[in-house]
Amino acid sequence: MTKSNKYMQIYHELLDKIQDGVYPPNEILPSENELSEMYTTSRETIRKALTLLAQKGFIQKIRGKGSLVLDVSKMSFPISGLVSFKELQHSLGRDTKTIVHDFGLIQGDDWLSQQFNGAPVDEVWKIVRSRQIQGERIILDKGFFLKEFVPLLSKEICEKSIYEYLEGELHLPISFAKKEIVVEECTEEDREYLDLEGFNHIVVVKNYVYLDDATLFEYTESRHRLDKFQFVDFARRKA
C-alpha cells in the first residue's frame, strides 16, 4: 500500500470512529506516536491523516495538547459567504445527494414581485430540491431565478450545480447576496420533502442574490432542520 493510500485509509478509519462516537466530542485523540504504533506507520503519515481531519472540520489541533474532536452533530454553514451546496460538499466531508422535486417555468405573481424588490416579475424558473446528507433529507431549497437572466435551465443541471452552470456556461457575474435568517413553523411541503424527526420548526435562510451591476436575479429559501446546523461567521472589530 502506498503512503498516499495509507494516510487516506487512516483518515477514513478515524473519521468512522468519530462519527460512531468511539472518539466523542471534546475528547483528545491518541497522540501521533500512539497512532503511529496503532497503525504501524510513520508519524508523517499520521500527521497527514490528522491534517485532513482538521481541514474537514472534524478535529481541532491544539498546541501542546493534541487533536480535539469537534462536535460534528451540527454542520457549520457560513453566513457571510456565497457558495453553492456542491462547493460546501467538499468541506462537509459527508455523503450528499440532491433530489429535484419540482422544476419548471412559472408566471410571476405578487408574492414573487415582493421578493424581487417590488419589481414586476414575468417568467421565473422555480426549483424545489431537497439535500440529503448521510442518508437524511435535512435541507429544502426553494429557488426562483428570473428567466430574463437564465433563459435555459434543466432538471439535470439542478441535480448537479446551478451555480456551476450559471458561471461556467452562461458567464453570469454573480457578485453578492443579502441574507435573512428566521425560524418558522414547518409547512406541509417541509413535512413532505424532509426527514423532520418530529421537529415543528425550521431555520430558513433567505438569499437575495445579485449580479455585479447590483441586479437582483435570484431569490432562494434554504430550509434547514433545526438540530443539524450551526450558522457561523467571522467578525473583526474596527477601532
TrEMBL record:
Q: Keyword annotations for this protein? A: DNA-binding, Transcription, Transcription regulation
Is-annotated flag, keyword Transcription regulation?
yes
Domain HTH gntR-type, residue spans: 4-72
Q: Which InterPro entries match?
A: Bact_HTH_transcr_reg (IPR050679), Chorismate_lyase_/UTRA_dom_sf (IPR028978), TreR (IPR012770), Tscrpt_reg_HTH_GntR (IPR000524), UTRA (IPR011663), WH-like_DNA-bd_sf (IPR036388), WH_DNA-bd_sf (IPR036390)
SUPFAM superfamilies hit by this protein: Chorismate lyase-like, Winged helix' DNA-binding domain
| Lineage: superkingdom | Bacteria
Pfam families given in the database record: GntR, UTRA
Q: What is this protein called?
A: Trehalose operon repressor
Please report the organism this UniProt entry assigns to the protein: Rossellomorea pakistanensis
